[in-house]
Specification:
This protein is α/β, with parallel strands linked by helices and 532 residues long. Strands 7-6-5-4-8-1-9-12-2-13 form a ten-stranded mixed β-sheet, with helices on both faces.
């Protein structure tokens, strides 16, 4: 009898131990899921803050993008680069674009030459691959996710530079990649072919070698006619991207994945198969403005499809969605008497000198106010060219409706993800982690920038955490100083009033530019090492 009781006690004890072990494993598994969400990063193309109804756009709405902001975390002091290629490079490498020898970019247009001759693909990729061997030995964003056992996918425009190949995409850490391998080809929306994991995929019905790129004007009758002539324009690129994204999500729903969608939308020239119903009868807009608004609406609609798919698959609550843009706003809807490129003051018909006067929506004719009242546009070092939306959405994990004024840059994303996934970075990147701002109470690093820097065609600029901005205008070799909290429109140059501040920030900017203010976007041959 005693033996029987002893056996029962031992059996019960082991059962209790086993139960506790299972509970701990389940808790650890749950914790692991919390720390390893699926991550979808959508990088819009040339989308300024003012194009979103969350920030006051009056001519159309962006309800799905707004949802990310209203039910997630919004960074209102977020900066990227001033145009596409350096923006993608900083995002992918974690280094600012004023640095020297951190990127190797090949020039565009290569695949356009092979549009009607697939045999040229091999020779083009061979030439590009020889340049890829000169890339600096740095850690790339998808490699961070792969170290944390994620499946990585990139869909849309190429991830880096102006031309790419499967070899380069694989080297960067992408398990799957689909889309344009040529930045220039991506200026058209009806490609004859795209690439999938290096394989050239022909698209029947699309017959234009330049992917049906049109002009940017809406007032020229022939251009407007060409825009709506759909002969040889059977398949719209964003249709392909959406289908590939949905398939990637479905195929990887059982494992953590990182999906990076670098969309063309709403980069011009304006191209859309049909005007969106929401703006079709808006008499305050020209036809080309309606078409441009429809491109923004299409991006918003596609996000809605993705959100619904995540819900249907039961993985919405374990998926973080990030929305941003590669740079600030750009004008692609020129119309005679309304706006113009090259940019000019439509009231005086004078070009901007970008020292004492600069582009503002009210004098440049931007009906959408895409830069949200700020100075400048894409390619400039005014804030309108580099300040971008940044929204994080993760149902039930991030506090709904949180707005942060923390100074962040797009090269911070890699460091933040490494912090979240507990991946040790092997390099001292320029980015810092904002995980604590994103998820208060998380045991991540408490870091912040004293300042950030970015390059431009005009010269580099520096912005401090307390709102000072030093702008270098290289053509005239002058520095301008602004205090953004009191003067977000950058109208009051304080350089003469605070010469010591200028000198201190100048030294900081030079240090961030590796000792030379010419590094960056204004010095292609030197910093970006173009291979033609």
């Amino acid at each position: 009898m005693k033996t029987k009781i002893l056996r029962l006690i031992i059996s019960s004890t082991w059962a209790l131990v086993l139960f506790n072990v299972l509970v701990i494993q389940a808790q650890n598994s749950k914790l692991q899921n919390v720390n390893k969400p699926n991550v979808i990063y959508i990088m819009a193309d040339d989308l300024g803050e003012g194009l979103l109804s969350y920030y006051g756009q009056e001519h159309f709405t962006t309800p799905n993008i707004d949802k990310l902001a209203e039910k997630g975390v919004v960074f209102n002091n977020s900066y990227s680069s001033t145009f596409c290629a350096p923006s993608r490079a900083t995002f992918l490498t974690g280094y600012n674009d004023c640095r020297e020898d951190k990127y190797v970019f090949t020039s565009g247009k290569g695949y356009k030459e092979s549009a009607t001759d697939a045999t040229k693909d091999e020779s083009i990729q061979k030439a590009i691959n020889s340049a890829i061997g000169k890339e600096p030995d740095v850690v790339y964003l998808p490699q961070i996710f792969k170290e944390a056992d994620y499946v990585t996918g990139q869909i849309g425009k190429l991830d880096y530079g102006f031309l790419t190949t499967a070899k380069q995409m694989d080297n960067h850490g992408w398990d799957y990649h689909y889309g344009y391998y040529d930045h220039t080809q991506a200026h058209g929306f009806y490609p004859m072919f795209l690439h999938e994991n290096g394989k050239r995929i022909s698209i029947p019905g699309n017959t234009h070698p330049d992917a049906a790129k049109t002009g940017e004007s809406g007032s020229d009758e022939s251009q407007e006619r060409d825009r709506w002539d759909l002969n040889g324009k059977t398949v719209y690129s964003q249709d392909l991207f959406l289908n590939k994204m949905l398939k990637f999500i479905r195929d990887n729903k059982e494992k953590p994945f990182f999906l990076y969608h670098s969309t063309q939308l709403p980069h011009g020239p304006v191209a859309i198969p049909a005007i969106h119903p929401e703006v079709a009868f808006n008499d305050s807009l020209t036809q080309i403005e309606k078409a441009y608004a429809s491109m923004v609406k299409r991006l918003d609609d596609d996000l809605g499809v993705i959100l619904n798919e995540l819900e249907a698959l039961g993985i919405a609550n374990n998926t973080m969605i990030v929305f941003s843009s590669d740079n600030g706003h750009e004008l692609y809807y020129n119309y005679e008497g309304r706006t113009a490129k090259p940019y000019k003051n439509i009231k005086t018909d004078e070009p901007f000198n970008n020292i004492t006067d600069k582009f503002y929506s009210e004098i440049g004719g931007d009906v959408f106010n895409g830069n949200k009242g700020q100075a400048g546009l894409k390619r400039s070092n005014w804030n309108g060219g580099v300040k971008v939306p940044l929204f994080f959405y993760w149902p039930e994990k991030l506090k709904s409706g949180t707005e942060s004024q923390k100074l962040v840059a797009n090269y911070d994303f890699m460091t933040t993800m490494a912090d979240m996934l507990d991946v040790k970075l092997k390099e001292n990147k320029d980015g810092v982690s904002y995980l604590n701002e994103l998820m208060p109470g998380n045991p991540g690093k408490a870091e912040e920038h004293n300042s950030i820097a970015f390059a431009s065609f005009m010269g580099p600029a520096l912005i401090t955490k307390d709102g000072w901005k030093l702008r270098y205008f290289a053509p005239k070799k002058i520095f301008q100083l602004y205090y953004l909290p009191d003067n977000f429109k950058e109208t009051k140059d304080l350089a003469k009033q605070y010469p010591e501040k200028v000198e201190a920030l100048k030294a900081e900017l030079i240090q961030k530019c590796d000792g030379d203010l010419i590094n960056g976007s204004i010095s292609y041959g030197r910093n970006f090492n173009f291979v033609r």
